[in-house]
Specification:
This protein is mainly alpha-helical and 319 residues long. The protein contains 14 helices and five strands.
């Protein structure tokens, strides 16, 4: 690979690159399409898989095809009116409610962290070092993921040398790249120490327990308590979280790594954060992305209205 090709490859996130490669392979091998494609063949491709693939998946396939044609110097067939009309028709004839991860409520966060701490203390007394490590790692990962609104891949790419934590004060975490950092400029994230459910304390306890001085913050742990050299894979975070939630008595399968991010966004919104501050803190670039993560219920306002009407009626009663 030439230096130019290497830098071009580095400009695309690994997950995106793999998804695009799979999409191109599906168009060519499974569907039997030819590249460069025509707008008519792309429209037929969409129609062929309209009842099988979700609209979001079809949009991803279109993005992959668009990227391939642009990189090869061909006209992008996905921008043709016929393609856009077919996609619009698919939305109309195959409506589907977007499935989202259940946001982690603060009470449930407290419950799972309490369970991890109790289990770690018991394992410590029984000299089960591997279980102590897992509990300390999971607690730090969950609390950092929640209070910073991190994605699973961001948690997995944290490096000890890029984190500065001061007990009772706060923590600063630097990520050289992230999904919202389109220009790969790098960004630092900060969060303060808290009186309870503290991500700073959880991080310092995990670092001390695992004796980590550099490298990935969150790693695999084998049955004997040996830590892996590489960071956790983002796909493994979902399994890790669901196991912790289930063992704490919660519905583990209802949660995913996005539950931490959605949970924090919902908590912040309910506690008076304005949307601009929330977007800046989490790293969202547009309002549409932010609103997808915020769990808004109209019943809270209805309850307050009902409570207000009751108070008014009481005030009107004669003494």
């Amino acid at each position: 690979m030439s230096d130019v090709d290497r830098y071009i490859a580095a400009a695309t996130r690994d997950n995106t690159r793999r998804s695009y490669q799979a999409a191109i392979e599906h168009f060519e091998v499974v569907f039997g399409g030819f590249l460069p494609a025509t707008s008519e063949s792309v429209a037929r491709y969409l129609a062929c898989y309209a009842g099988e693939l979700s609209v979001n998946t079809l949009k991803l396939r279109l993005s992959a095809l668009a990227q391939w044609h642009a990189s090869q110097g061909f006209v992008d067939p996905t921008r043709a009116p016929v393609v856009r009309k077919v996609l619009k028709g698919i939305r109309a004839l195959h409506p589907a409610q977007e499935r989202q991860a259940e946001p982690l409520q603060l009470a449930h966060l407290e419950r799972v962290i309490h369970w991890l701490e109790e289990t770690a203390a018991q394992a410590q007394r029984q000299h089960r070092h591997a279980e102590v490590l897992r509990c300390r790692r999971d607690a730090a990962l969950i609390l950092l993921g929640f209070w910073r609104g991190f994605r699973s891949d961001e948690l997995c790419r944290l490096q000890v040398e890029h984190v500065k934590a001061v007990a009772g004060t706060g923590i600063t975490l630097y990520l050289p790249r992230s999904k919202s950092d389109r220009d790969y400029a790098g960004r630092s994230f900060q969060t303060p120490a808290l009186q309870r459910l503290c991500p700073v304390q959880a991080y310092l306890v995990w670092l001390d327990c695992a004796a980590l001085e550099d490298g990935p913050v969150f790693r695999s742990i084998d049955r004997w308590g040996n830590l892996g050299e590489a960071g956790l894979h983002p796909n493994s975070v979902i399994t890790l979280l669901r196991q912790a939630f289930a063992r704490a008595g919660l519905r583990g399968q209802a949660y995913s790594s996005h539950s931490l991010r959605r949970g924090f966004a919902t908590w912040a919104h309910q506690n008076g954060w304005d949307l601009k501050s929330l977007m800046a803190y989490v790293g969202w670039k547009d309002m549409k992305s932010a609103m997808r993560y915020i769990e808004i219920s109209p019943f809270g306002a209805m309850a307050r209205l009902e409570a207000g009407s009751k108070i008014s009626s009481i005030d009107k009663e004669p003494s």
